[in-house]
Amino acid sequence: THTTLCHPQTNGPFKRWLRALKNAIKRHGNTKWTNVLPLVLVGPRNTVSADTPYVRAKLVHGTTLQVPGQIAAAKPYSAYNASANTTCLQCKSTRKYTFIISQIIEFLEIAGMFISIVAHHFSMNAKVISTSVVALFSFFKISTELKLFEHHKNEIRENVFSPYHNPHFLGTRGIIVQLMEWPFLDIAEECRTLLGPRGYGGVQLLSYYIGSRSGTESDFWTMSRICNDAGVRLYADVNLNHMASLSTAYYSNVSTNGVVLSSLNRIVNITDYHYPGVPFTKSDFHKFCIVNNSVHAHEIRNCQKNGHPDLNHAQSGVKEKMVLMLNQFLKMGVAGFRIDAAKHVWPKDMKHIFDSLDNLNVDFNFSIGSRPFFYHDVVDMGSDSISKTEYTPIGVVTEYLYAVKLANIINAKSAPLTSLINWGPAMGFLSHQNALVFVDSHDTQRGLVSELSRNRVLTHKERTKYVIANVFMLAHPFGRLKRIMSSYHYLDGDVNRGAPRVNTTDGIRGPEFDANYQCRRVSGWVCEHRWPVMLNMVAFANYFNGRNLRETSVMYFQTNGPNQIAFCRGHAAFVAINNDSERIFSKKLYTSLPPGTYCDIITGGLAPNSDGCLGRHLLVNEQSYAQLQLPVASHVKFKYAHRIPNLNYGVLIVYVESKLREIR
Q1: Which of 113, 180, 186, 324 could be disulfide-bonded to 510 (CB atoms 3.0-4.6 Å)?
Q2: Can you name the residues that pair with 145 across neighbouring β-strands?
């Protein structure tokens, strides 16, 4: 049995709950458990249409449901009349809901949704509910009181999830940028001059110690004040699983607090598990064992990965020190955390730590009682012994499968571009609400994620394909949170190279910009988040973050061969992608847009403070059709991209905000 695709947890948690319920019934001696399990699943609204989206749940939970004793009768499914219509009624006076089951559920698969119908109400003062009621109930002999999910039209109620799912973005912002190893004061300036004004929602920081080579504690305070004032939230990247190892691979580097790692053992005694800076001693770690077989969850979570001493989170002292560290970040204004190597920590231990944390600091414009946001680094390609869904009750999870599948499709390795019509949970991804999606990360860029095996992700070194991937990610509604990477240069064989430095003893060298506000290559930084196409797509994504997802879902998916696609976002945007290596994408297509002339945001968008267009035009006729002529993409390496003045990415995007003003 499945929940509806609109349900926030989309199948997984309900399946687990149903499985536990089945086992409980079996223990009572009835092997035909389905015969005593009437199942009620009321659809997300009382009308059905083909454009019902799978990407957003509009539910509020908590209303008590009173279940009368008549439902304890154990009739087999065959005894019910499955053809009867049903009605859902609401008591006027009590806000309580009472149902009697007299018909079986009839599931209808419509537009990928499983809609079922529920039966009669038994009350004197009742009326038909005018808006849909979404209820997920399982009735069996001992049922007495359950919870109700109520649908509110055009309103998102996030409290059906844990409090750790809220990233606390301001306004319609919804994009996180990972400024890989940027100095704190440079991040502050970037928030003030670019990230805030151009609509970025948050920054992922790399720091375990607040005082580090990225800056001092005072610098961190300054950064936090400036970024939060600019509307940009901060998320600290922390590792709760292990401490530093004696791996010789790191001896040539410099640690985050400026200590040369070849002399690290003079400060800490790693062989004796002695870390006085925290402090941690041998009793705080698991007994020595090595992760050799990744199919055993116990081994993954209790043994050493790559020689890193593995912390024992069952120890109260370990949890207390974690809480102290995270609370210090919260005091300084961060909105949440990325948990590195999360799959190596038991979820129950993680939740205990999270529940012990302080609320967010209201001095940084957080609501009273707000809880920290968490997104977990869990690599699960679908066959791992540790499932990514184990961590969704305590936060959002990074969806690595998203990056791999998108790269394979754009590289034409596993499927044509037309397969993107099924993009979403049908591809094996987490549900929309639980997924943080991305194209690459600092680990995947360098091939450091062993679980990816031979799968390769796209990076800035293949600029055209990389842009196509990021543009699609930001144009498509799937993925509640989206993260853009901002890198520094490194050679392919030098994966342990750190961020650009002034010299071997000073701190990190900040980025430098050219006349076009792009990072100068000689400074060592890539700054993908500053590329004009990325900035325009952030504005595009933010526009849709403020809109009802039902009205802006993917519709009118059109193709022209295996590697040329187009689709609409409701009646507000038109997207076309040409991933063919030879053919121009030439076809008359339906755009869903009002008639007029639109400016392509990929090739430039609207000119600031004027009525002009910096990119190509698209003329939409009275019937909302347009004749598309989209050239083949220019595939070049990143280091040569600056030599091509009008680099073509093979993508066109127009939307209502890019309509030329003289016609608007």
Answers
A1: 186
A2: 66
